[in-house]
Model the fold of this input.
Amino acid sequence: MSFLKLLGFGPGDSDPPSNDENLRKIIEALDSMDTREARYLGMFAYILGRVAHADLDVSQEETREMEKIVRELGQLPADQAILVVQMAKAQNRLFGGTDNFLITREFNKLATKDQKIALMRCLFAVSSSDEEISSEEDREVRQIASELKLEHKEFIAIRSEYKQHLSVLKKRRG
Done:
């Protein structure tokens, strides 16, 4: 199943990407999720990937943090969380510039204020997982906050929780 099809975008391919039986079982389990829940989780993972890919390098630490967040949020087994994250990363790498705004706009419609705030914290957790939030990642999180119609003071409050990892502040101290 295409990640964008899961999210409700584009025609997509309904066949699993491999003949591997374990992969088929994982995809079938994801297919059995409630559609609304799957869309929410897929969009959440995609937006995490958007920030991880902002500096054009998704580190192992960022990937592991994304997997942890998706596993906990979706209450998924590790193998399913890994697949969701890999799909999100691949789709973001291939179509990120085109789909970023569309998917974030849809997430904005679906999510509550508390869910948007939780996403912001997760975005900073992913971008700081390698101990440094690059300027590109910081700008991307700020852009997402804007697209989610969050107030600037809400963005700043969450960002301040991760200030020790902001590369712009590390440069000033050094």
In short: The chain has one domain: 3-173. The first helix runs from residue 3 to 6. Residues 11-19 have pLDDT under 50 and may be disordered.
